[in-house]
Amino acid sequence: MDAVYGRPVAVISSEGVDFGGALAYGRKAGGALRRMTFHERARALKALGAFLMERKEAYYALSALTGATRRDSWVDIEGGIGTLFSYASAARRELPDERFWPDGRLERLGREGTFVGRHLLVPREGVAVQINAFNFPVWGMLEKFAPAFIGGMPSLVKPAPQTAYLTERVVRDIVASGLIPEGTLQLVTGEPGSLLDHVEEQDVVAFTGSAATAAKLRVHPAIVGRSVPFNAEADSLNASVLGLSVKPEDPEFALFVREVAREMTGKAGQKCTAIRRALVPSHLVEAVTEGLRRELSKVTLGDPARDDVRMGALVSVEQRERVRETLEKLQQEARVVISGEATLLGGDREKGAFLDPTVLLCETPLTAKGPHELEAFGPVATLLPYDSLEDAIHLTKLGRGSLAGSIVSRDRAEATELVLGMASSHGRLLVLNRDNAKENTGHGSPLPQLNHGGPGRAGGGSELGGLSAVRHHMNRVAVQADPTTLTSITREFVPGAEVTEDVVHPFRKSFDEIQVGDSLLTHRRTVTEADIVNFAGLTGDHFYAHVDEIGAREGIFGKRVAHGYFLISAAAGQFVSPAPGPVLANYGLENLRFIEPVGIGDTIRTRLTCKRKIRKDLRPGETRPTGVVEWRSEITNQDGVLVATYDILTLVERARDEFDPPAEDSSVQA
Asked: What are phi and psi of 456, to 5 degrees?
């Protein structure tokens, strides 16, 4: 039924579905996805995001039937599609154009350097089973699908039945797009039946929903018996703390009131990150109550398809009744201070799932249990007075683990104490004040770049958080080998591996011609006192270790030494090919370490070796295809001792390929 008028929208069922067959098909179809590189998956995900964005108005129309306003739906629909773009961008920017992901640093396992180890991440050869809640039928699916797809795992999505019709419409468009391999995404809208009975060791299960359901699924015999990774993101009694230092006339006071009201009414309070407990200094309870009363009086209730409606309905009449039952239980330890029945602007009070915003006050929060244990998953919040920061921290922890918390204060010492006190029981914390009010995304808004999850009641899981979510879908394996073999496997140069030296200078080769392991050993250069003095004069760096004979003799080196940055500059003079060519620019320098001092009379030379290559997509307006070549630079002295090492990134011209836009239309993004 739709949530506004109670009219039929769709009929769903999973009758006749072969769950075991669906999972087996996904595992087999996933082979095509695993054969794609990270960058190929990222391009497909980006194209899919653009495809869905063109069809967003159809999703908005359906979303209104779930009770969501246009603003609520924006978070769900365009926020979900935006997650596809975010993961596509992060994968192209931070991951190799390979089917595997070298993880962490190289480990030297033998004294002579002939035995080394490295961790690799490779896709799990199973299906990512994704069970989602009713409140975000688009974002809830896409925020799980995106990292699974980038990680090389197909998804089987099971949305909540109340809003499954919106999820189904998006999935239907994804399948019709033809932009992802067949079998990459499957959908089951009805009851899950025996689905979890068929999960195997290579599968993963991700769940969003109630803490009670998460606890049951976590101990499912197939999940426990086959050690299937299980990630839970559950409801939580999130708290927002108004700092003791805040005065009613401060901007922070108004920010707190607006944020609580916004979290109560956004999605009609049906957000797992919404503010359920508002912690207020005891002397400000009355002022905050009046502020909330004024703010909530502005909220218009009714048909979310209307422009003059700010809050729609709950997702179903059944959900509204559950919220009412919880409200009754909460009133055993708290009293209602703000309520009422607003005039509906469209919609049906009887058949629709409308509920007016309600604020309670618990005057004994340190001894009460209900506000810290019972969640009314709707437009409901409870005010909890406190007298000290220690009490405030304790009250937040009584929720036994939260997805999100917020602190509204401009007092940095106060904010620091609250953050460090609350950190162990929260997945994400927002410090809100006048300085970030304009740009902040709000207490209840998960972002693709940051962790979404929390300890304890919140499920103990973790989603999003940038590429960390991709790792959930990959197996980490330690590979031990000799340097040359490991270089061959990882396509990333390992120190000590065999190198290839050519009569052609490596800077004279294009991105396509240069190969990992191509190397140049430069001529030698003896460092003189004039070099040191001139460099000091040029840069203004007259540090005593370089220019003060007596001071240097008494320092840690016992003599004057060359500037570290002189060594880098001298090395560049040794390996750079000066004429115009494929190398267009120095792109950066990383991992610089100065290992041994170089004194007057020491002789240096440099070995430059291609470490890895990274293809760059053409951006709008660019006409010259390029890639980044990462070079390992090793500077040694006359005894062959390593004195400095670092990685240089160069921008190198490459040939056009199938992923580039046509040359005559360089404004089109690859």
From this structure: 60, -125
For residue 484, the tally of other CB atoms under 10 A from its CB is: 16
Closest CA to 233 of 454, 468, 427: 454
**Structure confidence at residue 669 (pLDDT):** 41
How many whole angstroms from its chain centre is CA 401?
20
pLDDT tens column, 138-159: 999 999 999 999 999 999 999 9
Which tens digits make up the pLDDT trace of 615-656?
Answer: 888 888 888 899 999 999 999 999 999 999 999 999 999 998
Q: What are phi and psi of 604, to 5 degrees?
A: -120, 155
Q: Cα(665)–Cα(663) distance, rounded to whole angstroms? A: 5
Q: Supply the pLDDT for residue 384.
A: 98
Which helix (H) or strand (E) covers residue 361, if one does?
strand 358-361
Closest CA to 572 of 606, 536, 622: 606
Residue 205: C-alpha distances to residues 198, 280, 600 (Å): 12, 39, 63
Taking the C-alpha atoms of residue 351 and residue 355, their distance in angstroms, rounded to an integer, is: 12
Rounded-to-integer distance, Cα 290 and Cα 134, Å:
33
Contact 366, 387 (CB under 8 A): no
CA separation for the pair 95, 624 (Å, rounded): 22
Q: What is the identity of the amino acid at 490?
A: T
Buried b (16+ CB within 10 A) or exposed e, 623-658: eebbbbbbbbbbbbbeeeeebbbbebbbbbebeeee
What confidence score (pLDDT) does residue 581 get? 85
Q: Is residue 592 within 8 Å of 523, Cβ to Cβ?
A: no
Residue 240: CB atoms within 10 Å: 26
| Residues with active-site annotation | 233, 272
DSSP code of residue 122: E
The structure tokens listed for 220 are 């499912």
- Look at phi and psi of residue 527 and say left if phi exceeds 0, alpha if psi is from -120 to 50, else beta: beta
Radius of gyration in angstroms for the set of CA atoms belonging to the chain, rounded to a whole number = 30
The conformation of residue 568, written as its DSSP 8-state character, comes to: H
Residue 627's beta-bridge partner residues? 615, 652
C-beta separation of 114 from 503 below 8 A: no
Residue 616: per-residue pLDDT: 86
For Cα atoms 116, 122, 138, give the angle at the middle one, nearest 5 degrees: 145
Instruction: State the DSSP string of 246-307.
Output: --TTSHHHHHHHHHHHHHHHGGGG--TTSEEEEEEEGGGHHHHHHHHHHHHHT--EE-TTST
Q: What are phi and psi of 264, to 5 degrees?
A: -70, -35
The tokens of 341 are what? Answer: 């029945």
Query: Per DSSP, what are the bridge partners of residue 230?
Result: 205
pLDDT beneath 50: ranges in the chain: 665-670
Beta bridge partners of 609: 519, 632
Look at residue 49 and give its three-state secondary structure. helix
CA-CA distances (angstroms) from residue 143 to 390, 454, 466? Answer: 36, 16, 11
Residue 144: its H or E element:
helix 139-150
Neighbour-count burial for 346-383, b at 16+ CB within 10 Å, e otherwise: bbbeeebbbbbbbbbbbeebeebebbbebbbbbbbbbb
Q: State residue 210's pLDDT score.
A: 87
* 17 close to 193: Cβ distance less than 8 angstroms: yes
Q: Are strands 358-361 and 335-338 parallel, antiparallel or unpaired?
A: antiparallel
pLDDT tens for 222-235 read: 999 999 999 999 88
Give the pTM: 0.90
Distance CA(263)–CA(127), nearest Å, equals 35
d(CA 9, CA 164): 10
Structure tokens at 154: 């197909």
For residues 340 and 289, give the distance between their C-alpha atoms in angstroms, rounded to a whole number.
Answer: 15
Comparing CA positions, the residue from 365, 456, 449, 341 lying closest to residue 405 is: 456
